[in-house]
Structures are given as C-alpha cells and as structure tokens.
Amino acid sequence: MLGIGRDQFMDWGSTDRPEPKDATHVSFESVEWLSACTNQLLADHVRYCYEHSRFYRQRFDRAGVKPQDIQCVADLRRLPLTTKADLAEHGSEMLCVPESQVVDVCQTSGTTGAPVALLQTEQDLRRLAYNEQMCFVAAGLTAHDRVLIACALDRCFMAGLAYFEGLRRIGATAIRAGAGSVSLLAEAILLHKPTAIIGVPSMLLETGRLLHGRGVNPAGLTIGKLICIGEPVRDEDLSPSALGRRLRDLWATQVLGTYASTEMATSFTECAEGRGGGHVLPDLIAVEILNEVGEPVPPGQPGEVVATPLQVTGMPLLRLGTGDIAALLTDPCPCGRRTYRLGPVLGRKSQMLKVRGTTLYPPAIFAALQSLEGIHNYCLDVYQDHELSDRVRVVVGLEDGACLTERQISERIRGRVRVTLDVAIVSADEICARTRIEGRRKPVLVFDHRTRERTGLS
C-alpha cells in the first residue's frame, strides 16, 4: 500500500481527522512513486466506475474488458474515449450515487456545444478544494494573500467556486469580484487592494488599461501575481506570449497560466518558478496525449489531452477527450516537483485550420495580433473554401488613435503562421458586441461557419 492513496485522500477537509501528513509534498516524491500512486488510484477508480456507473459498465462489457484489466494508464487504451456528446446524451447513466447525495450542480460553459451538468457530492467538493489548494500552494500563494477572483461564481459555473474553496483551504482572503465588467474589477482592485488576481488574461489587460486611463498606474499597485485562466499566456516554446508580456509589463508582476475544465474538475497550474507548463496532480488525474488516430505521442509532442479525473464519486469519468491540443513535458522543473507538466494549449482539435496546405490553430493567429500595439480586440470568421482548404477572415478592432492598416496586420500574421489571411478592420465596439455573449464566461473569438454550430475558443 502506498503512503498516500484513496483511503487517506478521500477525507480532505474532514474535521475529525488530520490532513494527509505529506499532502502538500506529494509532487516532490520520485517519478516512480508518483506513477505508482496514479496507477493505484486509477485501478480503484476503474473498479468504482464499473460497479456504480451504468454507462461505463455497459462500455466495459461491450469492449470485453474487466476492471482488473486496467492496472495502469497505458491499459486505458483498451477502452473508448468518453466524448462531450456522451455527457450530454448519457449524463443520467453516469451518476454513481443516489440523488440525495448530490449537493452541488455544476454546468459547463457551453464553449464547444450545449452546456452539460456535472453533479457533485460533498466528497467531490472537498476534492475540488484540495485540487485548488495544491495549485495555489505551487503558485506561491499563502495565507497572507488577498486574492481577487475575477471570474463568475454564479450560473452553476465551477471555476469561481473552486478558486474560492481553494483559497479558503490555504487561509487566504478571497475577494469575489466576479467578471461582470472591467469597470467593476477596477473598482474592486482599488477598494480591496488584492495581492493577486485570478482571471481571464484579456480581461485583466483591459482592466489594467482602464486603470491607466483613469490615472492609476497598475504597476504601482500591490498585485504580486496574475493567475490567468481560459487563455494561454505562453507560446509553444514556453516563453511568455505577446499577451503574457503585455500583462507582465503593464502590471509589473508575475504572470502564471493555468488550464482546467469543468469536466476534469482538476487544474494544471504553473508553479512560482514560472518556467512554463501546469503541474499534473498525480493523485487527482491521469493524463494521456494522443495523436489523430488515438495513439500515444512521445513526451514534448502535441496531441489531444485525454483526461481521467481520479477520486470523483458523483459523476466519475474515464478517458475524457477534451479536444484540446497540448504536450506533456517530462523534464525536471526548477521548483523541485517531479510531476510532469502540461504545456500551453495550442488550440482545439475541432478548430484546426487548413489554409493552403498549412495547418494552424486560432491561438497562433491571436498571438500575432497581440504582438501589435494598437489592436484592442479581434475575432475570426472561418469558412470552407473546398474540402482541403479553409478561408479565414480576421476581424480586428483598433484602439483610439491607432493607425494600423489591414496590410500591416496581415503581414504580421503571415510572419507568424506563414500564410496570408484576409483582414478586416471594424470598430472595437462592434467586435465587443459580437464576442461578448450573455451567459458565456469568456469572449467568443472564433465563429466557425464550416458547420451549423457556432463555436468559441476559450
């Protein structure tokens, strides 16, 4: 039996027993120990799914697989992926507890389709809090921090709830500002003087610019860290992206990235070293990176992130295909943690673009736009020219006084992605009205006309 396993971790936050002795030090164990920990919890998770989930029991039986056949992450390949369509169509069959044990209903943002409900038990909420506690500790937050949560805590969204509970676990002060408007965020920052902010980077950039326009220098405030969600702040080589650099320079602070989703109920957050890549929590999730035909790729090579969240009791999942493209990084981190790290998300599998023989993802286009001074906001319209090529129209809004031309913008994009794209300049207000959709946590930046469904990139 390993030193830390299900029996010890299932009572996170319990008042009648102490924390697992080495909970905050799990990630510093040897690679072999971490792998064995994940595999042990995975085998337990597989048995739980088979015994309690009607959906997964049927999947196992159809595949001719028994729970005991899955003893490590590599064995998961014997099972098919779980898709977001499966969640939407078979959610009730995935519930593993009586409805009387459901204490919280979370809902996905619907970024890539219809919103899906995830039902959580009390145990799942404690797990969620532990998840964010570990992430915040790695990011360098302490009980002395005052942290402004600049994301939604309403409409059944998981993120704000998770951050709040995680901050409670480390004893920090949580300032629940939400993401209602940039103006409200600016007022909350001046009033409550946070030492760190959690939010969508593009919104934090707007907030900093608003403060600057009101005569307040963001660099002179008390902000020590920006923890960025929903949008990458690093390029593929792990260097700060143009957006990350702008945030760093505007706020004169450390900018860290994090990746998560409601379905995973687990976060991958950069550590305080800030060298790139979100640390994998080995006791909470098993990760696979697969190529287009479902085969695992070598470390460092991009592929689809496939996640199996461990120790979930309400609606546990096996092999969730996220659709996000990223690489698993296995080189040592200067922070001393021996856990693998997930590199920045390069794009969504469903939004891969093929333009005149070149494959690219929308974030690469966004990175080119973010590197130009004077661009306020933007979005993409994607059309299908023919079966083997897409046509992309880049719609850009400029800041007041900016004198960029469509040709200049197109050339900057070409220098980044090696293809020439159509560029149209419209008013920033027009783009804002189009991309800020009620009920969405983040702006919709990609309008995919290749299908009937309009999708957004977070």
The shape is globular
- The name of the CATH topology of the largest domain is Rossmann fold
Helix content: 25-40%
Mean pLDDT: 89
CATH class of the largest domain: Alpha Beta
Q: How are the strands ordered across the major sheet?
A: 4-3-5-6-7-8
Give structural notes.
With 458 residues, this protein is an alpha/beta fold. The chain has two domains: 121-345, ANL, N-terminal domain (Rossmann fold, 3-Layer(aba) Sandwich), CATH 3.40.50.12780; 350-448, ANL, C-terminal domain (GMP Synthetase, Chain A, domain 3, 2-Layer Sandwich). The chain is 31% helix and 22% strand. It has twelve helices and 21 strands. The strands form six sheets. A six-stranded mixed β-sheet has the order 4-3-5-6-7-8, sandwiched between helices. A four-stranded antiparallel β-sheet has the order 10-11-12-15. It has a four-stranded mixed β-sheet with strand order 20-19-18-21, sandwiched between helices. The longest helix has 22 residues, at 31-52. The two termini are 40 Å apart. Residues 1-21 and 452-458 have low confidence and may be disordered.
